[in-house]
Amino acid sequence: MPELISPDAAWHHAWREAHLEWGPGLHEDGFGLLPGDDVETPAGFDAWLHRLAADTRCTYRWITEDGRVLGGIALRHEEHEAVPRAGRLGYGIRPSARRRGVAAWAVEAMLDEARRLGMSQVLAVSAAGNRASVRTLEAVGGVLQQDDDGGQVRRYVLAAAPGSE
Asked: Residue 46: helix, strand or coil by DSSP?
């Protein structure tokens, strides 16, 4: 059974395995990676974790199971600068863990966190061509609000509080 954990330096090796599986780039939404982050060295990894922990406008969680990092998920709250572009919820599942319902499970778990933070709704943004993400957001009750950028981006609203649909 997967679980959500706070980013932790003890998981450096397992996190690096997941990161390497994705290949080069910063496409693992949910991990809060920035172009200048050094996640290769233990010191750089620790500095990145400290930056994440200091970000009071976002809750970062890693999706783990049996000693493996399956993915990451982030809940952006307050006035986080990424919300207009990326929404309040971002996630990524490593390729070998996809098609098992892990993303839907993690989204639902983060909606519980959103409820605890007093949020009634959560905006999630997906590339229209990312069929797996679109299916995930629809499976957890996401309601399509609009297509942006000529149909390239879809914005879904997810109910975080009971009865807020």
From this structure: helix
Q: Classify 158 in phi/psi space as left (phi over 0), alpha (psi -120 to 50) or beta.
A: beta
User: Which residues fall within 8 angstroms of residue 154, CB to CB, at 6 or more apart?
Assistant: 125, 126, 127, 128, 134, 137, 144, 146, 147, 148
The pLDDT tens digits of the residues spanning 1-49 come to 899 999 999 999 999 999 888 876 656 778 888 888 888 899 999 999 9
Distance (Å, rounded) from C-alpha 72 to C-alpha 16? 12
109: containing domain: 3-118
pTM of the model: 0.89
Q: Which CATH number characterizes residue 29's domain?
A: 3.40.630.30
Domain count, the chain: 1
Is residue 82, in this structure, part of any structural domain at all? yes
State whether residue 64 is helix, strand or coil. Answer: strand
Closest CA to 112 of 158, 68, 53: 158
